[in-house]
Specification:
Structural class: mainly beta
Helix content: under 10%
Radius of gyration: 14 Å
Oligomer: single chain
Distance between the termini: 37 Å
Largest sheet: 9 strands, mixed
Number of helices: 2
Amino acid sequence: MKLNILKSKIHRAVVTQADLNYVGSITIDKDLMDAANILEYEKVDIVDIDNGNRFHTYVIAGERGSKVICLNGAAARCVQPQDKIIIMCYCEIDEEEYREHKPKVVFINEDNSIDKITNYEKHGEIHLG
């Protein structure tokens, strides 16, 4: 049996742009993608902390070091620049792999720089307000 499990997430990224006229997707700084092990064109779920919107799209690599987080196309209607979002990516693993799996979590500062990276997430251990 295959399980659909959280692979990684970028936590509390700040939306820098929302471009309604772009073809679609989310553009993410390549440095952030690499840190979270998210691949270009990979499907991601987006949660807007400020307005509660939840949706999914795919990733386009942004310029390395740009700190860009840009929602494109229809997804641009779900956010506003300066909103904080969580970007989550999933993988399919079998039950044996699950026993050793630890999601990668990339915590982001207000300027979209990396604060810290962890390989697990447990309720009650980390709370960001």
